[in-house]
Amino acid sequence: MSDEEDLVVQLNDDAEIESAVYRERTEEAQEWSISVAIGLIIGGSLLGLWFGVLLFAADPQDVLENPLFIDENTATVNGQLLSALDAENGTGGDPVEGVRIILLNMDDEPTSHSAFTDREGRFVMEDVPQESFILKISEENHMVVRTTFIPGDQAVLSLTLTPGEGTIEDDLRRDTHLESAVLLASVVASLTVVSALFGFVGAAEARRGKNYRRTQYLCGFALFSRGGIFIGPLLILVGMGMLSAIKHQFEDVEDDN
């Protein structure tokens, strides 16, 4: 064999070695990408599962105060204070002027929201957060009035000032859609948990590397898990993007090609 032929053989051997090394590095990079994508999908699904379990574990009040249900808007509180009716003397029902109305939080602590009744017994408080408050009226020689309500649920609060001692307690939240809200929270919690489970199945399907479309569909359902509101879905979405970049590694995509 001539020197020229030896050189050609050597060049071919070097090219084959370089090609083999390149393929090996490419396969390692693709395997790393798949592992990272699976990790992101599992992480996002775990957040969704945790979020769903928290919704199931919460009591109704906690559910309503969850960021998923909180109305970030404020409302104007309108009300009117009248004197109590006295059937025997045929008196009462008149507007009470100059009485201070204050709002307490659910820990019975005063807030910055208060007002005085006008000549018609009316009062207005603006920009009150739509969450549970206790409206309190404490007037000398009259019973203390404590009304629990959520601003915006009633157009006008009708209050009565009654002579005497003691406290009149009322909870207007009974007139709200508490049961419906709790039912909605349960449905959302169920969908969140189920969606998160789709993510785990999608991650397992990605590891198998059999069916790319099925993997993406499963991970797509997992986006509804809402883990951390948006963090979980974002992790899953990034994982899906990485799988899309290396989809030729899946057997069904190879068959199509």
Describe the structure.
The chain has 257 residues and is of the alpha/beta class. The protein has two domains: 32-59 and 179-256; 74-175, Immunoglobulins (Immunoglobulin-like, Sandwich). It contains six helices and eight strands; from the N terminus they run ααββββββββαααα. It has a five-stranded mixed sheet with strand order 3-2-5-6-8, with no helix packed on it. A hairpin with a 5-residue loop joins strand 2 (100-104) and strand 3 (110-116). Helix 1 runs antiparallel to helix 3, helix 1 runs antiparallel to helix 5 (231-245) and helix 3 runs antiparallel to helix 4 (212-222). The mean pLDDT is 80.
One letter per element, helices H and strands E, the order comes to HHEEEEEEEEHHHH
Strand content: 15-25%
Helix tally equals 6
Oligomer: single chain
The tally of beta strands, per DSSP, is: 8
Q: What helical percentage do the residues reach?
A: 40-55%
Spatial separation of the terminal alpha carbons: 42 Å
**Strand arrangement in the largest pleated sheet:** 3-2-5-6-8
Number of domains: 2
Judged by helices, strands and strand pairing, the structural class is alpha/beta
Pick out the low-confidence regions.
none
Labels describing this entry:
257 residues, Immunoglobulin-like, rod-shaped, 6 helices, alpha/beta, 8 strands, 3-stranded mixed β-sheet, single chain, 5-stranded mixed β-sheet, 2 domains
